[in-house]
């Protein structure tokens, strides 16, 4: 079927209806979550009790809004801290990886490339437990044999950062490598020809060219870090990031304050995603 | 007894899009078994016209008939035409044989019969025994032949070809021109070929239609187009020509005397109907129609004769040209006959040039 | 570039270092360690010895391998459903929509996935629970007489899995179908093909790389999913990741948990490998 090939009208209508239904299916849960953030009721459920902003700004129990809910605010702060670390590390390592895989030949390159891709096809929960197992073994060894207490290797934020980094770095490497692959090497040669040192050529010509991809990779990393649940769940200590905090609340039975958080999350990630798109549009030039 | 209807007939076919008209009232018919080309620059509407014949676009008005049967409301998969696509569109997921068999399988032909007919048509295009090959293993010329075989096995009334030689390199293209012509006369199928390359059209076709801005400027044999271009566009588009702008100074019948903008006076043939004194005209003279000589006497008997200075030599084997200039006027090109007589020709030489009035064709200049 | 061999070697080493640290310390060694741990038996307090006890438990206790099998089969079903639901949408966006509406629809497909999986699942809980919107709508239409609980069953898990995986199916499908030039479809029609035969012989074979990579990712995500089964399936969701979580966090039996983890990893890798083999793809081309 193509737009200009004659097709029976009822088939076309049926197809269009299916597409409509599909997008309704996509939108429905999100619309519902958003709508119930404003329901004047203690449960995110029918019946609709009228409009309220309590779940954002309320400050009396049981209606403590997001902006007055200490635990949630703290979790948002934790998530932000984790995501910045993850994004920073991921972009750094991804950039060196991109140069390594695009510019150098070395033994076992293709094997390493496949290993580099693996974190994307290993279930997140397994990445989490394997890192947990390994870090605990080192920590136990350090404590037992050397008498050192290394808290960073016990469940907690440093491990969460490492766990998330372990697969987000792959995604960032793919994004930045793709951009470096399109780079015209003759621009660097021109810089060298005009008297730049190899490092200056990279610093002033190649890195600015890569910048849109690096920013996009960083933003996507932040997004992925904020959303991550499986790996985080296995590595989390006492300071829980937002998704884990929300999960615990959900299991206890939720109040519409979770809808309010979700709505804010959606707004923030849409904004971030918009930024990614803008930067990638910049990258296409 | 009535004559058999032409294989393809277009009646006042028009295709209008929201913001422009791609094809404007095109009329033509193609007799059975002939090679018909539509020649025009890109954007002239030839692709749209071809896609309407294939059924991928509907005419806004007018009618397309194949073997006398109207194609209105007939979807592309039911039309007795097949098409060789610009980039061939050979299915990469199928072997050569499966590509050729695709249409036969759609017609529910028996498997044994399919195998026989596929082998048969592959043999006819010189690819016997290649049916197991993958498409990407073929050379450019072999792919062309598979694309043709894939259509010819269905025995279409008309085969449409959408600039299939465009992607080939020059040498192969020259070779495929001859080959396509041979295949066409062998299969005796009507070919409708669109191209922007005049040499493809002139070499292969029985009839060529020159298309520009959605209309046919001229339909005729390759010779007609070359020797008797009907419009200024055809004169400029088919073959090479020197072009002057000027005004009619005097005329008698179709013989006109013209003074160009920079003062050259020449005699010409009014090619598109009667002109009147002081009409603005464009005059075309082919470089190869100009007689070149070192002796002024050689110009006797020619209607226009001038002396000019060589300003440049463009050596290109059989197509070598001299750039010549009359003081105070523009440069123009003259073919250098490669008989050896002009081997020593060099810049600064004074030469004598002349041509017969009927070699200079004057057309009313388009209104500015 | 014209750097001396020595400098080139040093640069190579500097670039290799972060890669090796990352892959070595966070990917390869931890998995080997987990493998070793899974072959360790606990014989007493702080007493361990190598052995197969953890794997024996898995095969002896029907509850574990039932959950394992169930997780695998439901993940396959979720993958098929996602493919069947997503393919027409991908085709529509890639081949039928044009210009701006195409970009818009594509963006619309992505939107739900900028939002955390938790939020999406929460949305389905609000829709499907007893006091939820679907139940309310059914009552309003008079189809049911009282509130119906649509949550905490396999169908709810399936709805959630399909929803959550949709993007990872639709995007590779769109990419694959987008690269199918219209002229191939036109040639199919021109040679007498019908919509159905063109779909079967031209469109689907061409889209195969996209179908495979989409299916692999969706299967892997479903298999490794924890949130959706727990939240939409309730306590009896019986998902294998739940069993792993229980061993690690609730029972603190890491050796058993590691064995379960290895089993899940082996299954997941096996299916990925099988998918790649069957379609003649490679991991680098599928993911990279």
UniProtKB/TrEMBL annotation, chain A:
**Which parts of the chain span the membrane according to its record?**
12-38, 75-100, 112-136, 156-176, 207-226, 257-279
Q: Outline the extent of the ABC transmembrane type-1 domain.
A: 76-276
Q: Which CDD domains match?
A: TM_PBP2
Query: What are the UniProt keywords, alphabetically?
Result: Cell membrane, Membrane, Transmembrane, Transmembrane helix, Transport
GO CC term, one of those recorded: plasma membrane
Report any one BP term from Gene Ontology. Answer: transmembrane transport
**PROSITE patterns in alphabetical order:** ABC_TM1 (PS50928)
Supply the Pfam families for this chain. Answer: BPD_transp_1
Q: How does it sit in the membrane?
A: Multi-pass membrane protein
Recorded hits in InterPro entries, A to Z, give: Bact_Polyamine_Transport, MetI-like, MetI-like_sf
Instruction: Report the locations given in the UniProt record.
Output: Cell membrane
Q: Which family does it belong to?
A: Belongs to the binding-protein-dependent transport system permease family. CysTW subfamily.
What protein name does the entry list? Spermidine/putrescine transport system permease protein
Q: Which organism is it from?
A: Devosia enhydra
From TrEMBL, chain B:
> A single GO CC term, please?
ATP-binding cassette (ABC) transporter complex
Instruction: Output the Gene3D superfamilies linked to this UniProt entry.
Output: 2.40.50.100, P-loop containing nucleotide triphosphate hydrolases
Q: Name one matching Pfam family.
A: TOBE_2
ABC transporter domain ranges (all copies): 8-238
SMART domains documented for this protein: AAA (SM00382)
Entry keyword annotation includes Nuclease: no
User: According to the lineage, what is the superkingdom?
Assistant: Bacteria
Q: Which PROSITE patterns match?
A: ABC_TRANSPORTER_1, ABC_TRANSPORTER_2
Q: Name one GO molecular function term.
A: transmembrane transporter activity
Record key words, sorted: ATP-binding, Nucleotide-binding, Transport
**Similarity-based family:** Belongs to the ABC transporter superfamily.
Its recorded name reads: Spermidine/putrescine transport system ATP-binding protein
Taxonomic classification: Bacteria, Pseudomonadati, Pseudomonadota, Alphaproteobacteria, Hyphomicrobiales
TrEMBL record, chain C:
Q: Spell out the family assignment given in the record's similarity comment.
A: Belongs to the binding-protein-dependent transport system permease family. CysTW subfamily.
A single GO BP: transmembrane transport
Superkingdom of this entry's organism?
Answer: Bacteria
Task: Name a GO CC annotation attached to this entry.
Answer: plasma membrane
Q: Which organism was this protein described from?
A: Devosia enhydra
Q: Which UniProt keywords apply?
A: Cell membrane, Membrane, Transmembrane, Transmembrane helix, Transport
- Gene3D superfamilies tied to this protein: MetI-like (1.10.3720.10)
**Where, if anywhere, are coiled coils annotated?**
none
Q: Which named protein is this? A: Spermidine/putrescine transport system permease protein
The entry's localization annotation reads: Cell membrane
- Classification via InterPro entries: MetI-like, MetI-like_sf
Q: What is its main location?
A: membrane
């Amino acid at each position: 079927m193509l737009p200009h090939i004659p097709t029976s009208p009822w088939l076309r209508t049926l197809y269009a209806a299916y597409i409509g239904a599909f997008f309704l299916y996509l939108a429905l849960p999100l619309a519902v979550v958003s709508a119930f953030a404003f329901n004047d009721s203690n449960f995110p459920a029918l019946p609709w009790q009228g409009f309220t902003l309590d779940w954002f700004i309320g400050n009396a129990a049981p209606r403590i809004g997001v902006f007055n809910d200490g635990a949630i605010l703290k979790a948002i702060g934790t998530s932000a801290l984790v995501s910045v670390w993850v994004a920073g590390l991921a972009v750094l390592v991804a950039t060196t990886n991109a140069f390594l895989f695009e510019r150098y030949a070395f033994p076992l390159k293709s094997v390493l490339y496949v290993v580099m891709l693996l974190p994307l096809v290993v279930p997140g929960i397994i990445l989490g437990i394997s890192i947990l197992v390994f870090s605990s073994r080192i920590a136990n060894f350090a404590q037992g044999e050397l008498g050192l207490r290394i808290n960073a290797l016990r469940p907690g934020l440093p491990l969460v950062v490492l766990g998330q980094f372990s697969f987000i770095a792959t995604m960032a490497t793919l994004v930045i490598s793709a951009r470096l692959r399109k780079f015209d090497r003759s621009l660097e040669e021109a810089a060298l020809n005009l008297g730049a040192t190899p490092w200056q050529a990279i610093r002033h010509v190649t890195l600015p060219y890569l910048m849109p991809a690096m920013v996009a990779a960083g933003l996507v990393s932040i997004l992925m870090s904020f959303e991550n649940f499986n790996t985080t769940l296995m590595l989390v200590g006492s300071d829980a990031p937002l998704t884990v905090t929300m999960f615990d609340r959900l299991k206890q039975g939720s109040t519409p304050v979770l809808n309010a958080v979700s709505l804010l999350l959606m707004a923030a990630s849409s904004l971030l995603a918009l930024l990614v798109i803008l930067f990638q549009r910049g990258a296409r030039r | 007894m009535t004559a058999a209807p032409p294989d393809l007939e277009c009646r006042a076919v028009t295709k209008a899009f929201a913001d422009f008209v791609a094809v404007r009232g095109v009329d033509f018919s193609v007799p059975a078994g002939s090679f018909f080309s539509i020649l025009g620059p890109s954007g002239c509407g030839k692709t749209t016209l071809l896609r309407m014949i294939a059924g991928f676009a509907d005419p806004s008005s007018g009618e397309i008939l194949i073997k006398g049967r109207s194609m209105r409301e007939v979807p592309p998969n039911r039309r007795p035409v097949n098409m060789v696509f610009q980039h061939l569109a050979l299915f990469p997921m199928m072997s050569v044989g499966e590509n050729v068999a695709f249409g036969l399988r759609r017609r529910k032909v028996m498997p044994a019969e399919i195998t026989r007919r596929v082998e048969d048509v592959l043999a006819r295009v010189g690819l016997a025994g290649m049916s197991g090959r993958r498409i990407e293993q073929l050379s450019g010329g072999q792919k062309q032949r598979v694309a043709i075989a894939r259509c010819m096995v269905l025995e279409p009334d008309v085969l449409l070809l959408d600039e299939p030689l465009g992607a080939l390199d020059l040498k192969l293209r020259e070779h495929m021109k001859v080959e396509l012509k041979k295949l066409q006369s062998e299969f005796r199928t009507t070919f409708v070929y669109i191209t922007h390359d005049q040499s493809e059209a002139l070499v292969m076709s029985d009839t060529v239609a020159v298309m520009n801005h959605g209309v046919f400027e001229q339909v005729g044999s390759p010779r007609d187009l070359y020797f008797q271009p009907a419009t200024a566009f055809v004169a400029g588009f088919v073959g090479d020509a020197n072009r002057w702008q000027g005004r009619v100074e005097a005329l008698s019948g179709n013989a006109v005397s013209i003074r160009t903008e920079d003062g050259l006076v020449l005699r010409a043939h009014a090619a598109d109907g009667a002109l009147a004194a002081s009409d603005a005209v464009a005059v075309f003279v082919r470089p190869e129609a100009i007689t070149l000589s070192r002796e002024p006497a050689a110009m006797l008997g020619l209607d226009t004769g001038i002396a000019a200075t060589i300003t440049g030599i463009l050596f290109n084997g059989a197509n070598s040209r001299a750039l010549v200039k009359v003081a105070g006027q523009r440069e123009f090109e003259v073919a250098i006959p490669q008989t050896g007589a002009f081997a020593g020709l060099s810049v600064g030489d004074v030469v004598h040039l002349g041509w017969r009035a009927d070699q200079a064709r004057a057309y009313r200049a388009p209104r500015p | 570039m014209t750097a001396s061999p020595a400098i080139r070697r040093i640069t190579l080493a500097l670039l290799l270092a972060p890669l090796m640290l990352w892959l070595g310390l966070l990917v390869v060694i931890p998995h080997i360690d987990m493998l070793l741990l899974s072959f360790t038996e606990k014989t007493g307090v702080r007493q361990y010895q190598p052995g197969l006890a953890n794997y024996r438990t898995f095969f002896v206790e029907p509850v574990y391998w039932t959950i394992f099998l169930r997780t695998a089969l439901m993940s396959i079903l979720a993958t098929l459903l996602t493919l069947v639901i997503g393919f027409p949408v991908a085709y529509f966006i890639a081949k039928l929509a044009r210009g701006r509406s195409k970009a818009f629809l594509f963006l619309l497909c992505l939107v739900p996935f900028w939002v955390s999986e938790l939020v999406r699942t929460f949305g389905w809980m609000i829709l499907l629970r007893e006091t939820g919107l679907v139940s309310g709508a059914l009552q309003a239409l008079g189809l049911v007489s009282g509130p119906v609980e649509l949550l905490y069953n396999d169908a709810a898990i399936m709805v959630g899995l399909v929803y959550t995986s949709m993007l990872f199916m639709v995007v590779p499908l769109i990419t694959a179908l987008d690269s199918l030039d219209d002229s191939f479809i036109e040639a199919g029609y021109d040679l007498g093909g019908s919509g159905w035969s063109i779909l079967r012989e031209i469109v689907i074979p061409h889209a195969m790389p996209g179908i495979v990579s989409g299916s692999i990712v969706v299967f892997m995500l479903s298999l490794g999913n924890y949130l959706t089964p727990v939240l939409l399936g309730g306590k009896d969701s019986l998902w294998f990741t739940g069993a792993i979580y229980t061993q690690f966090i609730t029972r603190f039996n890491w050796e058993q948990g590691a064995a379960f983890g290895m089993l899940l990893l082996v299954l997941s890798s096996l299916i990925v490998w099988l998918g790649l083999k069957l379609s003649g793809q490679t991991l680098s081309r599928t993911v990279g």
